[in-house]
Amino acid sequence: MTIASSSPPSRLPTGGAAEAPSRTGTEQGVSGEDRGDGRLAALFIAPALLGFLVFLLWPTLRGIYLSFTRFNLLTPAEWVGLDNYVRMVNDPIFWDSLWVTVEYVFINIGVQTVAALAIAVLLQRLTQSAMLRGIVLTPYLMSNVLAGLVWLWILDTQLGIGNEIISGLGVDRIPFLADETWAIPTIALINVWRHVGYTALLLFAGLQAIPNDMYEAARVDGASEWRMFWRITMPLLRPVLAVVLIMTVIGSFQVFDTVAVTTAGGPANATNVLQYYIYGSAFGRFQFGYASAMSVALLVVLSAITVLQYRLTRAGRTDLG
Question: CB 237: neighbour CB atoms within 10 A?
Answer without folding.
Answer: 23
